[in-house]
Prior knowledge:
Number of strands: 6
Strand order of the largest sheet: 2-3-4-6-5
Number of helices: 4
Strand content: 15-25%
Amino acid sequence: MRRILFLLIFGLAGLGVLLSLGIWQLQRLAWKQEVLAEIESRISAAPVALPRQVSEDSDKYLPVTVTGEMEPGEIHVLVSVKQVGAGYRIIQSFSTEDRTILVDRGFVPTTAKQTPRLTGPMEITGNLHWPDEVDGYTPEPDIDENIWFARDVPNLAAALGAEPVLLIARSETDPNVTPLPVDTAGIPNDHLQYAITWFGLALVWAVMTGYFLWRNRAPSESEEQ
């Protein structure tokens, strides 16, 4: 009986832990869905003028419209687009009346790397963004070939002589550049998969606990006979 009691307590404790982890992931899923809905709402809001003071904390995803001049000179950030393949994001500086910011104009395939692009006066609508793309595995830019491997806003700004403010264009700035607007597709939301994993482990744990209880109960019944 002591062995059975120990197995029962141990099994129920483990089952409780696994179920609680699954429930916690469902709670995290609900929270993440609310966050994503809020971000989507912010991204799709009506554009406003570029704030004088820009903050990542308060202005991330803010939709804005700017009028000014696209400056010559560009940086190419290597990316891959689904169903298209490898190519580059085109990053350029954009001057308004009193300031210069960065603009991510969008995507071109590798074959269009050296194709001349429109510059000069234009109006651009997009969203402010501070991409988190740099980690310890990100290679240094190949300056000679003009190939960067992440949108490192401070270094991009230093290279192009602009403020560390990046506008991701959602309006077209050149017929041969495809805008890649900000969206929530790149924000991970794996909580449902985690919840399924924990609940699956809980089911396996419950079955194994039942099996061990049966194995330990069966001899005691035969001994009584």
